[in-house]
Design goal:
With 701 residues, this protein is an alpha+beta fold. The protein is 19% helix and 31% strand. β3 and β4 form a beta hairpin. The structure holds (2R,3S,4R,5S)-2-(hydroxymethyl)piperidine-3,4,5-triol. The site of (2R,3S,4R,5S)-2-(hydroxymethyl)piperidine-3,4,5-triol has 11 residues, from loops.
């Protein structure tokens, strides 16, 4: 990144490939936002301090655009920082202290005017993707404890425009990452999680535009929070023409005791800018994730088979062997045994917490199944849910105090289970050792780490006074730490983040996760929408998609195999149906799709994704992937339901070189990139649930 500083004026311009982000210290010593958007040509543009209009009755702070927005004086906007000092004072007024650029990070140190509280704002930029990471460090450099009540990772200030539109992801279990777009009027729009995990209802991601942006054109400010717990994004449109987006740990029920000498570090908030529409914003996020966030981002993901929908809790060595043999014959590269292999697990009422192999189901332990799976040429993966315990388990009988609870209050169960208090060191040790032992004993290459309920009664009665509300954050820190330690020791093991489907999908866990289980909803039609929304924030390599039964378990819908495969081939492909239900012909077809997927895998998993036709706009969904080197193109098209015999509208490609020629691999038709983009492709999709996968190859100028 390049940071241009104009020291005397205390102005910093963070310049990325196509964008500038500028901040400055004002005449009072406060760190103010100055500019974010297209690169400005000359540095002179930054010399003029941003002079605001005066609004009668509104104070200077009321229209201030501080980078931190501490709660104090007459600042009434959503605070970026709120604390309580020991003498009961609760305001913070931050003034510039010093700045430094270290390891490519711009650090600006601010201090409260009275108290010994130091706040360091961090900025790290990724040029290629016009992405900036921001986070804050709060240091108690005094002698007395301080209580943090709200710490936002970033407050992003938007330029002043007459209208603002927010894009976000909403939903619920089985309907995650539904795309939502709405105009913001005065007031606050809050998306958040207050359930202990990232959640199914909202995702910590946003895009802002000015009401006219399209998929390919117009300004978009995009951002996210890299955190897997209790979070909040507040888009606040003030009456004074401003829009600020505060992003960070949710202040609801949060409190952090910062003793003398201690430091609190916020999670990272990611922010970026493009003038080229939502599509480019997503591609930039995808590229940033692939290169800088996603674990093992440079490796292609394997085609996996998962036995959950085939055998549910009834796993045993025999039925898994049969499935493994069939999965291998299809071309699967990894075989994953899901829930049910451990403790007294016959259904969801017992066993969680007891991470030893169930000897009735697997009399030979897991070893002989693993050997068999490996002999078939696949690697072996296993499901765990280590943050959880069933009251009906040895673990809970021995350690009833290990779960979150309030003293003498009812412990509310979800899916017959309670949440282990990962803030406790003894619990952390137990969870780490349980998984470490599994990985040390068996030749396991893949962990599907699940989490199937939200927190309730999040108490920690045994902790020292004032620390109990830290669980919201300590749980997440402990989880990251456990994953990191396991991964340092078992470097070859890949991790999938799952929480009842897509309940833990975010850029925080992404540093430790190789992939996400996108949703338990595997109905291909619903999936088009879930995956469409998901693609706005996350890359396709991280998005795991299974092909499941002909009759879908959620809605009974029957969709042809081709449509189901094509839908699942748009991310990391998995197979989840009961292979014993497949005819010989279906097995043959499935094997052919898997072989085809392997051939296009680098394009889908690592290429540039162009969303051409949204599932909710017409009866056609179309998504295109262009390989990084621009040589190959894969287009997926889906006809949901044909009405009145209407032919499907042509699909116009994007992202091609207009003057190069591309050949349709199936028909042999050769046209210029401009031709494919302007005239488009005539689709021959008919009836319900028809789909096509079309490949183009560059043949030169
Ligand atoms: C929820 C997950 O999302 C499913 O894929 C499966 O692993 C079940 N849990 C197992 O209990």
């Amino acid at each position: 990144m390049s940071i241009l500083t104009v020291e005397d004026n205390k102005i910093w311009v963070i310049r990325t490939h196509r964008a500038d982000y500028a901040i400055h210290v004002d005449s009072n010593g406060a760190l103010q936002h100055f500019y974010w958007g297209e690169q400005l040509n000359t540095l002179d543009e930054f010399f003029e301090a941003s002079d605001q209009h005066v609004w009668i009755w509104e104070s200077e702070e009321g229209i201030s655009r501080e980078e931190i927005m501490p709660w104090g004086k007459l600042n009434f906007a959503e605070p970026g920082l709120k604390v309580e000092f020991q003498d009961c004072s609760r305001d913070v007024v931050l003034r510039f202290d010093s700045s430094v650029i270290e390891d490519n990070v711009l650090k600006i140190v601010l201090r409260d005017v009275i108290k010994q509280l130091q706040v360091t704002v961090h900025y790290r930029a990724y040029d290629e993707f016009d992405v900036i990471e921001r986070w804050v460090e709060i240091a108690n450099i005094g002698q007395e404890s301080v209580v943090l009540e709200q710490v936002m990772s970033a407050v992003w200030h938007m330029p002043v425009y007459p209208s603002y539109r927010l894009t976000y992801l909403a939903g619920h279990w089985g309907a995650e990452t539904q795309l939502r777009r709405e105009l913001l009027l005065e007031g606050k729009k809050v998306i958040e999680a207050r359930r202990g995990i990232t959640g199914h209802n909202h995702n910590p991601f946003f895009m802002i535009d000015f009401g006219e942006t399209t998929e390919e054109n117009g300004s978009v400010y995009y951002g996210a929070l890299a955190f897997s717990g209790h979070w909040k994004v507040v888009a606040e449109r003030t009456p004074y023409q401003f829009l600020q987006i505060a992003v960070g740990i949710n202040d609801f029920d949060f409190r952090w005791l910062l003793k003398a000498g201690e430091t609190f570090v916020s999670p990272v908030s990611v922010g970026g800018y493009t003038a080229r529409g939502y599509g480019d914003a997503s591609r930039k996020l995808h590229g940033y994730q692939q290169k800088h966030v996603l674990r093992n981002g440079d490796q292609l993901r394997k085609v996996l088979y998962n036995s959950w929908e085939a055998t549910y809790f009834d796993v045993n060595e025999e039925n898994q062997r049969i499935l493994a043999q069939k999965a291998a014959s299809l071309g699967a590269e990894r075989f994953v045994v899901d829930d049910g292999w451990f403790g007294a697990r016959a259904d969801d009422t017992a066993g969680l917490g007891d991470w030893y192999v169930n000897k009735t189901k697997f009399p030979n332990g897991l070893g002989s199944l693993i050997d068999y799976v490996k002999s078939l040429g696949m690697d072996f993966g296993i499901w765990v849910e280590p943050e959880m315990v069933n009251p009906n388990s040895d673990l809970y009988r021995n350690h009833p105090d290990w779960v979150y609870h309030f003293p003498n209050r009812h412990r509310t169960e979800g899916r017959n289970q309670l949440v282990l208090n990962l803030a406790r060191e003894d619990v952390q040790a137990y969870v780490y050792h349980a998984v470490d032992e599994l990985l040390s004993t068996y030749d396991i290459s893949f962990i599907k780490w699940d989490m199937n309920r939200y927190f309730s009664e999040p108490g920690w009665p045994e902790t020292e006074m004032g620390r109990d509300r830290e669980v919201w954050v300590r749980h997440v820190h402990a989880l990251y730490d456990i994953w990191e330690r396991l991964q340092t020791k078992h470097t070859q093991v890949q991790f999938e983040s799952c929480a009842g489907g897509g309940g833990r999908v975010d850029m925080g866990i992404m540093r430790y996760a190789d992939q996400f289980w996108t949703s338990d909803n595997t109905d291909a039609l619903d999936r088009l929408r879930i995956q469409w929304g998901h693609s706005h924030a996350y890359n396709s390599k991280s998005m795991v998609c299974w092909v499941t039964e002909n009759v879908n378990f959620m809605n009974g819908r029957q969709i042809p195999l081709q449509f189901r495969f094509h839908t699942a081939m748009m991310g990391t492909l998995g197979i989840g149906m009961n292979l014993n239900h497949m005819t010989e012909q279906e097995m043959k077809e499935a094997a052919a799709y898997i072989a085809q997927y392997k051939a296009i895998r680098p394009i889908v998993q690592e290429g540039l994704c162009y969303r051409l036709s949204p599932p909710e706009q017409s009866d056609v969904t179309a998504v295109e992937y262009v390989s990084q080197d621009g040589q190959e193109v894969v287009l997926f098209t889906f006809r949901h339901a044909q009405h009145y015999g209407h032919p499907a509208l042509p699909v116009r490609l994007r992202g091609l070189d207009p003057s190069s020629r591309y050949c349709n691999s199936e028909t042999g038709e050769i046209r210029s990139g401009q031709g494919w983009m302007s005239r488009g492709i005539l689709l021959r999709l008919k009836g319900d649930y028809d789909s096509a996968l079309i490949r183009l190859t560059l043949v030169g100028d």
